[in-house]
Design a protein that fits this description.
Blueprint: H1 8-22, E1 27-31, E2 39-42, H2 48-67, H3 78-102, H4 112-132
Antiparallel strand pairs: 1-2
């Protein structure tokens, strides 16, 4: 019984998912109003919750082989990573579209959560691309 190494692609996906999860808490948008308190929102609103769930699912798919006795999980395939990454990116882009209709998209100082999550998703894409080009493990 030998476990395979994590690999660069899965490590990038894990780091990107953690970065995306960290980006859920800070503000994604702010809207200053005169004579009233400003409005703001984070990634746990609207379809942003889908990005949160997809990042959690990516972390779960990465850890599944290490939770089994033989070190093999049926979900630990390139297709699973591609599907979850596409769901997360689609939800992120839709949320950015929704935000752009209400408030202007801010720079990293105004909307740090949006930028952190976007950077995490880019890292996930890089990791998924690496997973797609890796050689299948020899069992």
């Amino acid at each position: 019984m030998s476990r395979r190494a994590l690999g660069r692609g899965r490590l990038l996906v894990a780091l990107g998912a953690i970065l995306s999860l960290a980006g859920m808490i800070p503000a994604w948008w702010t809207l200053a109003r005169t004579n009233a308190t400003g409005l703001s929102g984070n990634g746990l609103e609207g379809v942003g919750i889908v990005v949160f769930l997809a990042a959690l699912a990516l972390l779960a798919v990465i850890t599944l082989p290490y939770a089994t006795r033989d070190g093999v999980a049926a979900l630990d395939r390139a297709g699973s990573y591609v599907l979850l990454a596409l769901v997360a990116i689609g939800a992120f882009l839709f949320r950015v579209f929704e935000i752009s209709r209400v408030a202007p998209l801010g720079l990293p100082m105004d909307a740090p959560g949006l930028w952190l999550t976007g950077a995490g998703l880019l890292m996930i894409v890089w990791g998924v691309a690496d997973i797609l080009t890796e050689r299948p493990p020899a069992y």
